[in-house]
Amino acid sequence: QLGHDDRQVREHVGILRQRGVAYITLAHLFWREVATNAPALPFLPDWLYHRVFPQPHRGLTDLGRTAVEAMVEHGILVDITHMSTRSIQDTFSLLDDLDPGHHVPVLATHMACRFGKLEYCLPDETIRRVSQRGGLLGCIVCDHYVCSGVRRRVRGYEDSVAALCEHIDRIREVTGSYDNIAIGSDLDGYIKPALPGLEHHGRMRDFQRSLGERYGA
């Protein structure tokens, strides 16, 4: 979609900005020659994903670097969700070169904290770097990622809220603030099963009330 060479990528990013695109997720479920990705198929263990869908031992490609440069130029935010650890490191390093004052925010639109071993979930250092750039971390509502390393099973709505709040509290602990925390449900994405009681957007009103009771308005 972004193009096959530097010229196309720069041109297409500019067109996307003209059409109102606010952010781009540069990696997704499979290798697309822009940035290597973390395994994100809940039915495949990470080791099996890597065997079935091998990727180069790198992070951002030359096209990926061009994309980030063009996005900074045109004011489109980078979404690091789905990126491999190497891609995330490359992205932050490039942004530090392009924007040493840390004025450009970074998004992780649908993430979870790495309490367990899943590569998709973000470690503390990545969470801290998103915060340092004034970005947002959107907590996903997928059972597979939210419960990894936290609890074995959630049996209903209250368990789901408790599990999500462990991620919210961890982000608060790492960043020292609630300012960088969002709800990035990914409910229309590939996250079946969703957390019990949060299977559709109609439950967000209940979730808002529960968060208010726990954290205040």
Task: Please describe the topology of this protein.
Elements: H1 6-18, E1 23-25, H2 46-52, H3 62-74, E2 77-79, H4 85-98, E3 106-111, H5 124-132, E4 136-139, H6 143-146, H7 157-175, E5 181-183, H8 204-215
Helix pairs in contact: 1-3, 3-4
Task: Note down, in words, how this protein is organized.
The chain has 217 residues and is an alpha/beta fold. The protein has 8 helices and 5 strands. It has a 5-stranded parallel sheet, with helices on one face. Helix 3 (62-74) crosses helix 4 (85-98). It is globular and about 50 Å long. The termini are far apart. The mean pLDDT is 95.
* Inertia-based shape: globular
Helix-residue proportion: 40-55%
User: What is the structural class?
Assistant: alpha/beta
Spans with pLDDT under 50 lasting ≥5 residues? none
**Helix segment tally:** 8
The biggest beta sheet is recorded as: 5 strands, parallel
* Separation of the first and last Cα atoms: 41 Å
Q: Kindly estimate the percentage of residues that lie in beta strands according to DSSP.
A: 5-15%
Strand order of the largest sheet: 1-2-3-4-5
| C-alpha-based Rg, rounded | 17 Å
Number of strands: 5
Mean pLDDT: 95
- The SSE order reads HEHHEHEHEHHEH
